[in-house]
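Notes continue from the previous slide.

Worked example: a multi-chain complex. Inputs as given:
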Amino acid sequence: MIFVVALVSVLGFILIELPPGSALDTKIAQMRQSGGEISQEQIKALEDLYGLRDPIHVKYTKWITRAVTGDFGQSFTMDMPVGALIWSRLAFSIGLAVFSLLISWGISIPLGVYSATHRHTIPDYVIQVLQFLGVAIPQFLFALVLLVFSASVLNQEVGTLFSREFQNAPWSAAKLLDFLSHVWIPVVVLIAGGTASLTRIMRANLLDVLGQQYVQTARSKGLHETRVIWRHAVRNALHPLVMALGTTLPTLISGEVVISIVLNLPTTGPLYIRALIQKDMYLGVTFLLMLSLLLIIGNLFADLLLAWVDPRVRLDES
Amino acid sequence: MSTASAALDARESELEQQRSAEISQWGLIWRRFARNRLSVWAAWVLVAMYVVAALAPFLAPYNADRIDTNHSFAPPSTVRVIGGRLAVCALEQDLDPFLLKWRYSDNCSQARPIEFFVRGDPYGVLGITTFNVHLFGVTAGLPMKGAPAPQVRATPTPTSSSTATSDPLAAFRIQQSAAVAPIDKVTNAPRIFLAGADQQGRDVFSRILEGSRVSLTVGLVGVLLSLTIGSIMGATSGYVGGTWDDVIQRLIEVIRSVPTLPLWAAIAAALPRTTTIVQRYFLITLVLSLVGWTSLARELRGKVMAYRALDYIAAARLAGSSHLRIILSHMLPNAASHIIVVATLAVPYSILGETTLSFLGLGMLPPAVSWGVLLKDAQQLDSILIHPWMLLPALPVIVTVAAYFLLGDGLRDAVDPYSS
């Protein structure tokens, strides 16, 4: 796992380093535009100071040796340490992703079970159509539509997480309510995407399991149908859902990045894309690394969870 | 007698068996697929969309990039039936004194019929020749007979002659009453905007059609590319095994442990921004496939590893087949149905990827036209509230992606011999 993280950091570093030019060029261009004259020698001195002309492996070694101690370098465009910039945003992103994931699970399991046990009925078709729409509608679009809805129908102030009067206020019940009235859009969009794919998986799995003989055995023993489904069938249909965590998590993270750009949320998304466009490399690469780390930990968690629900995948204890 | 009929029966059932035995694996797959009505419909929808994309310049009434500042943010035209013919009313514009924006209204005394096969903007065909015939359009000519009387336009505040003199907005009122009817400089006719116009007065409908060419193919080409990479990587890593397998598996692991969209964005940001549209197009397909090949390679590796242990491969090996021949003509055809399903289900993700990247300003860049590029114009909330038609390019995205999912689902069920 550490090996993978290290490789991701190398890969990310190369990627972000690849485009020509640097954030320094942008700054110099800005200074020139505002009338300052910078000589070629000064530029050279600055480049030497920031080590911009070092070969890439030297740059990487410099960055990674300090990164492992928690110092991810300085953001060129924001004039702040990268570490200080990303933690609060990352925490919000993680919170949003995990919360949406839990809700998605909570909705999609009963929905998938219902859909599978009531096959070819109208509610089943409705669920299937909705789930197709949930996967087919680009998330940024859904966010945009909800934004329009909340601005024009609900007359909410959009594009922030707090109304103006609560922006700098200390946390209180009123502020929490205000926060909830703003945060519902990204949450709904994320849940919609997650629920759609998870319901699909749940339905397909349960249909597979319901066709197996042990389910028939359970029925012929005279067990109540609810018990057959929830105790016997659903328990065995859950494993692929846990395994799907590995594919759901990156979708949630990607979705979160896009949605927060559309909604201008103070999470990783807008800052990350801006860092990429402005070649703010330490900021960009740290975000990429952190998002990957999130994914890797998530997958590890999924594996552990799977071992917990399914004794068959546990390694021999002997 | 009875023996003869029994012999006949036997003969018949034998024939029957032969007939049913003649159905190939692909024939069986096709039969199962055709039973799934929804997927067949989805397939037809997709075929129609690709035909539309191929004929886009002909089907579109205007060129996608024709700027017409006289029609900035013109609303969608209402197609009316006047005198038994489809017609559009002429558009008139006047200045909103408060928002300082153009306001549009229909003037149906100047209605023009919608005509078919009209001459308009020239467009190239396969780079060989140029045509200027469009499927439909509005031509200059006399206003239609039997057109209704001019509609009375509602003015925001009723003006009476007594207050008009002291009214600071009087100048605008005069402007309003003298609303100008901008006309198309090329065809000298009123314009038809089925989906409204954008800020620069470009026809959104024409742009959606034009954008379909990039958006519908970028996913397909991207998946073809990932299919090629994925097949080579997956088949060789499963077949050769050992260190090569280890290296490829770790590589896949690393790529897959970076969330897709941030990775796409990072690669796309690393691309040079001063390229031609065609170069950019292929770079974007490359970006999409650099991430996309991993899932296919994994699936194929599993398949190839399973086949490797089977007798028929050992037989082929003993018969003197080369490794390349075994992979190409014994293993890949066996996995073909599986590959097709995985590829079909990967296309919509590719299309969504391009749309999202372009929306973020990292994918296709203007002047290229794709659905994502069009939706980028709808990023500003104020803009959508006033010009909701700017969101229309989203519709074909949703239809395409849903159709591909349905098609992929149908194919998956069809290739699975155990599906009910």
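Summary box: The longest helix of chain A spans residues 173-210. The mean pLDDT of chain A is 78.
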